[in-house]
Amino acid sequence: MTIQFKDLGLSQPVMQALDMQGYKEPTPIQAQAIPPVLEGRDLLGIAQTGTGKTAAFMLPSIDNLRKADNQIPFKSCRMLVLAPTRELAGQIAQSAKDYGALAGMKVHSIVGGTSVNKDRNKLHRGCDILVATPGRLLDLIDQKAFNLSGVEVLVLDEADQMLDLGFIHALRRISQLVPQDRQTLFFSATMPGQIKELVGKYCNNPVTVSVTPAATTAERIDQYLFMVQQDEKQTLLEMILLEKHPTPGDFERVLIFTRTKHGADRVVKKLSQRGIPANAIHGNKSQPQRVRALDEFKRAKTPILVATDVAARGIDIPGVSHVINYELPNVPEQYVHRIGRTARAGADGVAIAFCAEDERQYLKDINKQTDASFERLPLPDNFRAVVEGVGPTKPAPKQQRQRVKPKPRGDAPGKPKHSARKGKPNRPQGQGGQSNRRRRGGGGGGRGPAQSRG
């Protein structure tokens, strides 16, 4: 018998919000997590990104907040959700607004890269649900603009990613600032030693929900591999995107991952030179730039997005047809999160990896720690010719413009550049021809600098 949301004990306002979103059947993690969360239990969820974790903790938490009906605390919140990236925080906050639309929940989000003063103002009166990145949250706490005294429910989403981004000290500090009498919901895709330590600090006898084994790749993703030299990757990428190579799938929305910020910008620049529109998203981009790039990607206005791992988690963009690992990640688990951007919401997806000679160890680690199964693809038939500059997809060399030496202003040789009106004496008559006055058609002889105009 198929479980439906109405079987999980959710209240009528939440069920109506789900109907408005078109949701009928819960995902496995939602079916297993919602009942214990409704009971007020702490929970440890082990699941890949894209499995529906946000609804798994947000739906029952909204119900519990609504039933408790406590006042919104001054300069605090009733439910705090910590997320590793700005983009994920924004998506969680939007989901909270959608799910809590009929329950009267006041929802805010705060992230780095935005105005601190605006954050101070909007949090002054407190809120029901706050979604935050750890760094900006602690900034406001240090400024006495916010506190965690009113937290009833604490959620850590993508906890292992927060560790990867260096938030371990921030998380330890936050654990000391929240009330002991609270409910904690802890979600992570992997369980390294530091995560187990954090679970011990945050959770009290949690219910463990594990939907898929840690570090496994989605079954609906076809994975392909190109062995290619590092300095030839850009050419291969351009040939693939220009459909000069029979790569599986139709390129509708393509997410390309690099290891560095400068690498992402370099790929975008070279694609643009080839007439292929693309945007970049990484930590050096301002928040408005990141929001604009994601919006254009979602609307397929610019269907190619080049990103660092800041976009590997929680970016729920429907319709990503291909994920291309331009550079393999040096952390095997990160590969799982990267390719998890495709094959979402029951769709199929394609993942393509470029592997250079110096990345073979990364490839071995990915194969060892995940269930990745690659089909190796040959390089295009004319690839070598294109790389060497004689192929049809290589841009023609730019012709240098021949610089033309400007002609002198006057016909007379040796004419001075400045006129007498700028403090320079005219050339005396008899040296090199007629005076200026004669050449312009004026009558009479030239006058010296001592002569008057009248």
Automatic annotation (TrEMBL):
Transmembrane segments: none annotated. One of its GO terms (molecular function) is ATP binding. Residues 387-454 are annotated as: Disordered. InterPro entries: DEAD/DEAH_box_helicase_dom (IPR011545), DEAD/DEAH_RhlB (IPR044742), DEAD_box_RNA_helicase (IPR050079), Helicase_ATP-bd (IPR014001), Helicase_C-like (IPR001650), P-loop_NTPase (IPR027417), RNA_helicase_DEAD_Q_motif (IPR014014). Belongs to the DEAD box helicase family. This is DEAD/DEAH box helicase. Residues 34-209 form the Helicase ATP-binding domain. Residues 3-31 form the DEAD-box RNA helicase Q domain. Keywords: ATP-binding, Helicase, Hydrolase, Nucleotide-binding. Residues 415-425 have a biased composition (Basic residues). It holds the Pfam family DEAD. A motif (Q motif) lies at residues 3-31. Residues 220-385 form the Helicase C-terminal domain. The lineage of its organism: Bacteria, Pseudomonadati, Pseudomonadota, Alphaproteobacteria, Sphingomonadales. CDD domains: DEADc, SF2_C_DEAD. GO terms for cellular component: cytosol. It comes from the Bacteria. It comes from Aurantiacibacter aquimixticola.
